[in-house]
Write a structure and sequence with these properties.
Shape of chain B: globular
Oligomer: heterodimer
Structural class of chain A: alpha+beta
Largest sheet of chain A: 6 strands, antiparallel
Radius of gyration of chain B: 25 Å
Helix content of chain B: 25-40%
Order of helices and strands of chain A: HHHEEHHEEEEEE
Helix content of chain A: 10-25%
Shape of chain A: rod-shaped
Radius of gyration of chain A: 33 Å
Strand content of chain B: 15-25%
Distance between the termini of chain A: 64 Å
Largest interface: A-B, 31 and 25 residues
């Protein structure tokens, strides 16, 4: 029924190049009261078929239906906006998984040089992750942060630098790992 | 006898960061662990302090000089509100993983309503509280104190019960066991006046208060205190307000500067800067002020102020500064030294369309509103105070403080390539790593 009403309003619009007023809709669709028209208008408004101006007069909106429907081509290709980009992510999403647990540090030494981590680099770390063997981690050694590989062998866990000039760190007591390194950023 | 027969008719959580500001600092600098750390250097008084500092007798609002006497090895740091705010937002987000009903009570505190979530989360209320605390502690890198109870007032008692890093669960059936050990003056919302009044009737513990009957409470206390009485009995009165804080009764800005000055133009520019800052806040919350109070604080801590009304509500600093200029001479006394300026904006209303007036000032005002829209836009892009009024020039172009009080926060100094003094990445910085 609604579709039939829409068609009739559309025909009126084509013929007269304007939208009908309430009385005209009444006669056009054979309604008995303006209240019925009012209800229909609200429904059509919800469907984005038409709209009302500041004085309540009807104005056209999507009389010809939604134009930009995914997968449907009408009069050329739709602009490559939202749908095509739905499967993309921002650099933030790419680098950061758990926003609340992500922190940044600035690298100061050369101990991870061979892993491609250089002085001045920014590292993004996650405090919520459990550190695994082989992860690059931020550990707390002698009340300082240090960035190293976390390694495990029969004797236990230790920290390994990526630079021959530095030696492994074997913890005397418990090894405190603060975070796991997730990304290195260098801006030129 | 229990005050309430149900364990959790409602489940309210209160989360409180342990010495929040100081903890944010220690979390990013392991070398500070175990040391008496104090923030508030720029103000010259203790703003937040670690438990190590507390143990040495340092208290909040103590002056730098006093602290040096009793705790010479204290580490005094400038406040870094930007970093504290980042941690604060994270605290709220972590609690929101469990429930959308989170009330951001202050920068380091929030309430959350967990009622009815046992089944969807497949956890008991106790487990939720534990899990929230564990996530906060591990992801933010310092500890939080948490209270779980049937009402806000009781949840707050819970989070205070054991500090730091406490988790106190007060089911309705156990309320009396806690209130029995709590002075009535320790209850949230009961001040010294009410305490003295209740003492006259022999009420000393919170339990004695909660056990009074309804008739007595109605006859002797005002509505806010009747509500606290209900809350203490495990009957929820105060709802969790999950809306972002977007209404203000008044907006105030006070800023100290050193050295103190008797230069009229400089003191005025400090005030002007405060006006600009207040108006930025007004515009952010789409408010307009009708009444203004401004004051100057002298070197010997006396206040001199003046209050005036505006013709119409405004968020335009130029209008306010023009008026202040008129009355400034009555407040500024030549020869005295001033150390701070302050401003309170009152009678705030929603900033909607303005009423037309006889002299067509509305049109001008609208043009100016457009200008400040752009000023805010530029600030968003390039940092606060990229554009400012000429009347604020002297204040903007001089460091706010002399000597070590002007030491900026580490974060503002140690920048990454691409960051500037005015714009930094919104991720907490843990410092250098070797």
């Amino acid at each position: 029924m609604l579709e039939k009403y829409k068609k009739q309003i559309l025909r009126f619009y084509r013929r007269n190049r304007r939208m009908p007023n309430y009385a005209e809709v009444m006669t056009l669709l054979g309604f008995k009261s303006k209240n019925a028209v009012f209800k229909l208008v609200n429904k059509l408004k919800e469907e984005n078929f038409l709209s009302k101006d500041a004085k309540g007069r009807l104005i056209p909106k999507n009389l010809y239906g939604e134009l930009r429907v995914l997968g449907q081509v009408e009069a050329g290709f739709p602009s490559p906006a939202e749908e095509e980009l739905a499967d993309t992510m921002s650099l933030d999403d790419f680098l950061i998984k758990n926003k609340e647990a992500t922190y940044m540090l600035k690298v100061s030494g050369e101990s991870m040089k061979d892993a491609g981590i250089l002085p001045g680099d920014m590292v993004l770390v996650d405090r919520s992750l459990t550190p695994l063997d082989g992860n690059i981690v931020i550990a707390e050694v002698d009340n300082q942060w240090t960035i190293k590989y976390l390694r495990k062998d029969k004797q236990g866990v230790y920290l390994e630098p990526a630079n021959k000039k530095f030696s492994n760190i074997y913890p005397k007591e418990e090894l405190k790992i603060a975070a796991v390194v997730k990304a290195v950023i260098r801006k030129y | 006898m229990p005050l309430n027969l149900h364990t959790f008719p409602q489940a309210v959580l209160h989360v409180d960061g342990d010495c929040f500001f100081a903890s944010c600092e220690v979390a990013s600098r392991p070398e500070l662990k175990g040391k008496p750390v104090i923030t508030g250097l720029e103000r010259g008084i203790v703003s937040s302090l670690t438990y190590e500092a507390k143990a040495r007798g340092v208290r909040r609002a103590m002056s730098l000089r006093e602290v040096k006497k009793i705790c010479p090895d204290a580490v005094f740091l400038p406040s870094d509100y930007e970093t504290y705010s980042l941690y604060s937002l994270r605290m709220f987000s972590i609690v929101r993983r469990f429930t959308p009903d989170v009330e951001e009570y202050s920068i380091d505190e929030c309430f959350a309503d967990l009622s009815g979530l046992q089944r969807p989360l497949n956890m008991s209320y106790e487990q939720m509280a534990e899990k929230i605390k564990a996530s906060l502690d591990s992801e933010l890198g310092f500890t939080f104190s948490v209270g779980l109870a049937p009402t806000k007032v009781l949840a707050k008692i819970g989070s205070k019960w054991k500090k730091p890093s406490g988790l106190t669960i007060i089911p309705g059936t156990d309320i009396h066991l806690y209130l029995n050990q709590l002075g009535v003056d320790k209850v949230w919302g009961i001040g010294p006046q009410t305490t003295a009044y209740l003492n006259k009737y022999g009420i000393r513990t919170a339990l004695q208060f909660a056990e009074k009957d309804l008739e007595w409470i109605r006859a002797n206390l005002t509505k806010p205190h009747q509500e606290i009485w209900q809350e203490l009995r495990g009957e929820m009165v105060y709802k969790i307000d999950p809306g972002k804080k977007n209404t203000y009764q008044s907006i105030s800005k006070t800023k100290t500067f050193t050295p103190p000055s008797n230069d009229r133009e400089y003191v005025f520019s400090q005030l002007s800067k405060n006006v600009e800052n207040s108006c930025i806040k007004l515009r952010r919350y789409q408010l307009a002020a009708k009444k203004v109070f401004f004051f100057l604080k002298t070197q010997d801590f006396r206040y001199q102020g003046y209050e005036f009304k505006l013709i119409r509500p405004t968020d335009n600093p130029i209008e306010i500064i023009k008026m202040i200029d008129k009355y400034f001479s009555s407040v500024f006394t030549v020869g005295s030294l001033f150390r701070a300026t302050g401003l309170v904006l009152m009678d705030l209303s929603e900033n909607t369309s303005r009423q037309a007036d006889l002299f067509n000032e509305v049109v001008t005002a609208e043009k100016i509103a457009k200008i400040f829209g752009s000023v805010d836009g530029i600030a968003q892009r390039y940092g606060k105070h990229t554009l400012f009024l000429g009347s604020s020039f002297s204040a903007m172009n001089r460091a706010q403080h002399e000597g070590n009080r002007q030491t900026p926060a580490e974060r503002k100094e140690d920048l990454f390539k691409g960051e500037s003094a005015r714009k930094r990445l919104a991720i907490p910085y843990l410092g250098g790593v070797g």
